[in-house]
Design the sequence.
């Protein structure tokens, strides 16, 4: 026990004392905050002052209708101008197109795009747009929506339908969502619970990969520095392996703890923090922040630890087979792929947290560490299902750790070529 | 048997069809300085690894301290310097030593105290809180050596301890080993450098091709070869000595080093005969001594023999 403790302490302090640990600990929350802020900033920086010309080649005033609709829908971001002339006059169209995104010294003001309402094309239900902003998803969807409304209104008028009635009937409504867990209202919107589940999946996935690879590199480091024989003369390979896993695991928990703690502090005091920066408190408080229940924390912690035991011992076995870090990049691919498959399954689970995929994957030890916490955050599992998932994961982790330990024991003292499958089987079998 | 610190009883180890060690038995008595000699690839390291329980013999057994446990169980009483040795490059020197002592069972506080003491003693006091990777190779070797010995083991096992050492470090380490032996501790080391073993060991075992050739007290082994060797050193007329040295009726074999030579006299020839021949040929001598054969000579004689016999046994490559 004393020896195991010495290994754990050495490994822990070796991890925690690196520059990269300090940097990632500090930058992690910043990155997370960035990930949350950037989409918001992107929405805010939405195009402003786009100048779009609508060329109406017809005689029914469709251009005018479109302009009115677009103006009422998007009064801030765009200015629209209607030109009525036959679209067959290609020189006029071309001269407009030449003004798109043109330097200011060119004749006529620079414009961002041209909508062509050509009667022949409209007959085939087509509208063309030429612009510098065609890659902007939000611009295109705005234009499409505005034009669609104008066109629908025009077609309805043509059919003799009273437009006021149509507008009255197609009044928009707001759709509010709230998550219910255990038959109780949580006060969380759909977006918030999705965000929480997604963030958890991402964090768990990153943590399993990041710290699993740290265990692997620790194993390779000892091997390439020829330390193993010195160590194994005093320590059993199992003390060495589990000391390493527990040491790196504790460093991981410290780092994750600091991250989660910081995140919770920031969200709890976000009003106060915002007012320091002169941002109105109410604006910040309006942003939906999901609540993390203590039960969810416990479940996530448990499954992270089980998953870490499973994956880090698999990574350790890979490390023991290799002599250099370069070799591990290829050799660790199978393990990494399994983690990635688990991560992609999460997207299915997000859509249907109680569906059959979610239920089945919760029982597979390789995937449960990612799937179960995500499911729990969306729709808490029953105690029975949770216990079965935990036990099967524990069992799976023990089996993987046992095989990994057998490979590790032989591998750390073997130098030279990486073993083939047949040799690995011999390693596992060796007495 | 009770005074044997190491008892190796008929061990055999095979690696994928190749026999590394074959039915090898050894006994290392308490307080001995024991040299495990043999050419490269003879099975020295495999034997030591089996003694340390790093690998298990396929046959036979190893008993340490009269059966108190395996090498790992007894690691608090054993200092082991493997052939494959290294340190954590990013760790501080003292922390590294403390860790090495802790995994032998010492408390952290005691480990730190001993580490400090040893670093001072071997002149590395200023390097205590430097990272291992900042040390020169020679200093790293010293740290490695301290890590092996700082917990004051009863048995020290060193696999090729002097390989790659500069002369200064060789001297330092030799002094430490001799000091251990003087304090009644048992020292086992492997080497293929015979002069080293001859100067330090009181017991030796020569192994070749995984088999033991000779073992016992060095003095007994030398006595067995008898006083049939001549050690010569020349001062003048060296050329006149050549026909005498090549005379097979006088010498069975000669190691000619130029300014000196060692030869094994033919049966029935005594020193006087050779001396008369050399003097009458006008050879100037600064040394003429009837001696026991050097370990080097015994080694070459023995290992050369098995190389031939082993070659005659196919299937045991």
Sequence:
């Amino acid at each position: 026990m004393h020896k195991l403790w010495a290994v754990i302490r050495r490994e822990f302090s070796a991890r925690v004392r690196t520059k990269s640990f300090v940097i990632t600990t500090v930058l992690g929350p910043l990155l997370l905050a960035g990930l949350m802020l950037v989409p918001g900033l992107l929405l805010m920086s939405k195009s402003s002052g786009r100048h779009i010309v609508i060329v109406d080649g017809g005689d029914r005033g469709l251009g005018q209708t479109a302009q009115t609709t677009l103006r009422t829908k998007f009064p801030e971001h765009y200015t629209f101008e209607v030109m009525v002339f036959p679209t067959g006059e290609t020189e006029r169209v071309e001269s407009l197109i030449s003004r798109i995104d043109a330097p200011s010294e060119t004749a006529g003001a620079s414009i961002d795009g041209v909508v062509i309402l050509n009667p022949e094309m409209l007959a085939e239900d087509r509208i063309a747009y030429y612009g510098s902003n065609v890659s902007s998803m939000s611009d295109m969807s705005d234009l499409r929506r505005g034009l669609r409304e104008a066109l629908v209104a025009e077609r309805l008028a043509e059919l003799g339908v009273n437009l006021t009635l149509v507008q009255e009937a197609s009044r928009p409504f707001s759709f509010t969502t709230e998550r219910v867990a255990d038959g109780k209202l949580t006060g969380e919107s759909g977006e918030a619970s999705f965000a929480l589940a997604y963030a958890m999946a991402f964090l768990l996935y990153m943590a399993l990969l990041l710290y699993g690879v740290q265990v692997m590199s620790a194993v390779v480091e000892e091997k390439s520095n020829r330390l193993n024989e010195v160590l194994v003369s005093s320590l059993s390979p199992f003390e060495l392996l589990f000391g390493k896993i527990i040491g790196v695991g504790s460093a991981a928990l410290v780092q994750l703890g600091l991250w989660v703690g910081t995140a919770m502090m920031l969200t709890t005091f976000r009003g106060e923090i915002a007012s320091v920066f002169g941002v109105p408190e109410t604006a910040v408080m309006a942003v939906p922040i999901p609540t993390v229940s203590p039960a969810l924390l416990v479940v996530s912690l448990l499954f992270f630890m089980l998953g870490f035991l499973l994956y880090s011992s698999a990574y350790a076995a890979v490390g023991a087979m290799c002599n250099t870090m370069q070799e591990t990049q290829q050799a660790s691919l199978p393990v990494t792929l399994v983690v990635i498959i688990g991560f992609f399954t999460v997207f299915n689970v997000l859509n249907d947290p109680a569906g059959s995929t979610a239920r089945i994957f919760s029982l597979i030890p390789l995937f449960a560490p990612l799937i179960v916490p995500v499911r729990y955050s969306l729709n808490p599992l029953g105690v029975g299902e949770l216990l079965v998932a935990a036990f099967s994961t524990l069992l799976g982790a023990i089996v993987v750790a046992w095989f990994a330990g057998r490979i590790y024991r032989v591998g750390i003292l073997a130098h030279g070529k990486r073993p083939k499958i047949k040799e690995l089987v011999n390693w596992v079998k060796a007495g | 048997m009770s005074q044997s610190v190491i008892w190796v009883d008929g061990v055999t180890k095979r690696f994928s069809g190749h026999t590394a060690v074959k039915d090898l038995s050894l006994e290392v008595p308490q307080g001995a300085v024991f040299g495990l000699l043999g050419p490269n690839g003879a099975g020295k390291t495999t034997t030591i690894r089996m003694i340390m329980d790093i690998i298990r013999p396929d046959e036979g057994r190893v008993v340490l301290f009269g059966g108190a446990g395996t090498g790992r169980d007894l690691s608090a009483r054993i200092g082991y310097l493997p052939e494959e040795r290294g340190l954590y490059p990013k760790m501080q020197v003292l922390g590294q030593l403390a860790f090495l002592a802790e995994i032998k069972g010492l408390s952290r506080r005691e480990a730190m105290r001993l580490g400090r003491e040893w670093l001072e003693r071997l002149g590395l006091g200023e390097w205590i809180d430097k990272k291992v990777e900042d040390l020169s190779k020679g200093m790293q070797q010293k740290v490695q050596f301290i890590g092996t010995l700082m917990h004051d083991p009863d048995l020290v096992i060193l696999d090729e301890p002097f390989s790659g050492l500069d002369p200064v470090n060789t001297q330092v380490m030799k002094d430490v080993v001799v000091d251990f032996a003087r304090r009644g501790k048992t020292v086992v080391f492997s080497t293929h450098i015979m002069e080293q073993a001859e100067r330090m060991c009181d017991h030796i075992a020569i192994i070749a091709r995984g088999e033991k050739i000779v073992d016992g007290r060095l003095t007994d082994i030398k006595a067995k070869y008898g006083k049939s060797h001549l050690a010569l050193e020349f001062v003048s007329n060296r050329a006149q000595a050549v026909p005498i040295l090549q005379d097979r009726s006088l010498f069975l074999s000669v190691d000619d080093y130029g300014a000196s030579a060692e030869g094994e006299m033919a049966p029935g020839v005594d020193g006087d005969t050779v001396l008369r021949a050399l003097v009458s040929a006008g050879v100037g001598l600064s040394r003429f001594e009837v001696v026991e054969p050097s370990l080097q000579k015994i080694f070459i004689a023995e290992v050369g023999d098995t190389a031939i016999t082993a070659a005659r046994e196919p299937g045991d490559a």
User: Anything to note?
Assistant: The longest helix of chain B spans residues 295-312.
